[in-house]
Amino acid sequence: MSVKASLGVIIGNRDFFPDRLVAEARVDILALFEKLNLKPIMLEDTDSKLGGVETFGEARKCAELFARHRDEISGVLVVLPNFGDEKGVAETLHLAGLNVPVLIQAYPDDLNKLDVARRRDSWCGKISVCNNLYQFGFKYTLTTKHVVHPSDPTFEADLLNFVAVCRVVKGLKKVRIGAVGARPGAFNTVRYSEKILQRNGISVTTVDLSEILGRANRLTKDDAVVKAHLEKIHAYTPIGKTPDEAMIQIAKLDVVLNQFMAENELDATAIQCWTSLQQNYGCNVCTSMSIMSENMLPSACEVDVTGTLSMYAMQLASGSPSALVDWNNNYADDDEKCVLFHCGNWAKSFLPDIEISTAPILGTSVGVENTYGALAGRTPASPLTYGRISTDDPNGKIKAYIGEGYLTNDELNTFGNRAVAQIPNLQGLMQYVCRNGFEHHVVMNASKTAGILQEALGNYMGWEVYNHI
Questions:
Q1: Summary mean pLDDT of the chain
Q2: DSSP one-letter string for 133-145
Q3: With bands split at pLDDT 50, 70 and 90, how would you rate the model's confidence at 113?
Q4: Smallest Cα–Cα separation from 452: which of 103, 196, 147, 77?
Q5: Where in the chain is the domain with CATH 3.40.50.10940?
Q6: Is the distance from CB of 376 to CB of 289 less than 8 angstroms?
Q7: Which overall architecture, per CATH, does domain 176-468 show?
């Protein structure tokens, strides 16, 4: 997430307003981009009148510049230092054909400078620009304040949030997910539509679990690649009481899963984590999944493809790892708290006390000795964004819910990966989840990014999004 983001910049102008406002805006934006480590793609001040866009010719010139940087530009910032020419802005976007998010900023007027020499009228101009973009069919994002100076802290926050929106949209439109194995037979809940996902740019590559296990079984403890992955795992987490033979199995599986991802250029995986794996191979895959998620290659259990898609979206929004969890237990009689749980594949970021262990619940049916590789650990207090993306197959659409809360340090005496969540109107949220047929899996991220996700998923991806506020 440290790569500098590139934004196209359109500075709108209208000839009967002071031109120097355009020159001043250019200086303001360049300074702000420098501060935030953003790269502007914009006309030079010699390419048009002060680098602004007003006429069709200037719009064409700006569009050609954007087109040359098509693979680089993730979004466009429209700056209105005065009323601006709404047709010039719309024509630029139309001719460039970028299909990226657009943020509209307009400068505030000074009550003491409403004379002809300094008047902006950007308040009104922003409405006109938005109206034209709406007519053209463009989606766009608004600033928190209708008019705001680039030096205002709220605009700085708006711009950074917009960059995150661009990351989510760009990432989701080309994400490649690997589905390893078949979903557990008892879990209809994780069924999904590959066809609906593909229509939205989301590709799924499948592989039979037997192929993965077969490749892993052909490796030996003496293979250099197995030794290297074993060292990687030891560096990642304490191994507790995990026997050497189980560690070798875990390492061999890790090798093959990483090879599968590299061969298919995958961004994320969803894995058949039980019970064939334990019965036919003799370990859990949780450790490998945790390492992948920590390295920003999210991995979801139980072949929950839309679960890992949710993990990926939240990761893009926040720049930090996500975890797939169960809405698992009530927390005593507190109506706004619940227990989040899974056998043990959460990213290390959530588990300061991480250790390789077993999966006791799964062990009751497959033998605890076959479940080494599950991670144990308790997630401490942190901010929380939660949510879920799902394909609604009968209605042919993608839908999602998102919201914010907190993870707490409340006492919790159990095993596995575990956390306590505090969420306003949790009972109302559970009503929504149940009534709308969502899965028992939800994704958590240690951030406050629901607004970013709502804008990206709802406005730009065009999905049905419920924000639980």
A1: 96
A2: HHHHT---EE-SS
A3: confident
A4: 103
A5: 6-172
A6: no
A7: 3-Layer(aba) Sandwich (3.40)
